[in-house]
C-alpha cells in the first residue's frame, strides 16, 4: 500500500488493531515508505527556522521513530545527537540509518535525562498523547534541557471547515475514537487534540517561555493563515 515498498492493507489493519508500541514495531521496516513519516519539506523548513537560534551543542529527538528528524539535529548541533523512542522496531531502523547517533529506548512520558541537552525536537508525535499525558511529556523535556535550552516542533494549523483536509482529519479522529471504545489495547493517534492554545498552556505550565514562528515556506490555507508553525519553547536561563 502507498508504494511497492510500503505496507499492505492487511499489515496496516494488523498494526491498527495493536497497541501503539506493538503497532510501530510491526510497521517499522516499512514506515519510511508511508505518508506517516514526516515529509522532508517540514523537516527542512524546521531546520531553516532553527538556523538563527543556536548555536546548540547536544540535541535530542523525542519520539524519534526511524530517525527522520536526526538530520535536523545534525545540521544544527555541534555535539552528540540522541534519539529516544519506546518502539524497539523503530529504534532498530534508526540505528541502521544513523549509526553515528545515540539511541535510547524509553517511555517519553518519563524521560531519563537531566539537563543533558541544548536542543530538543519532536516531529509528528504529539497526536500519540492524550491531552492529560502532555504535561508529563513536556515536564520531562524541560528536565532534559539545560537552562536556556530550546524545545522546538512544527504544529499544523487547523484547516478551514470548507476544506477537504478538515473533514478527513475529523473523520479519522472519529474513527479512532470508535475503535478505541470497542477494542483493546487502544491505539492513540489523533489529529485534532493538539490545538496551539492548549499546547502553549501546557508548555507554560511546565516552565517554558513560548513563542511561535510561521513556517512560511510550507504555504498558507485559503484563509491566509500559515499551514504550519514552529513552536519554540525555551527553558529560562535562570531556571533550576
UniProtKB/TrEMBL annotation:
UniProt KW Cell membrane keyword: no
Family matches, as InterPro entries: Methyltransf_25 (IPR041698), SAM-dependent_MTases_sf (IPR029063)
Top-level division of the source organism's lineage: Bacteria
Pfam families, per the entry: Methyltransf_25
Methyltransferase domain location: 60-149
Sample GO molecular function, one term: methyltransferase activity
SUPFAM superfamilies: S-adenosyl-L-methionine-dependent methyltransferases
Keyword annotations from UniProtKB, A to Z: Methyltransferase, Transferase
Keyword Transmembrane helix: no
GO biological process: methylation
The protein's name in its UniProt record: Methyltransferase
Organism: Plantactinospora endophytica
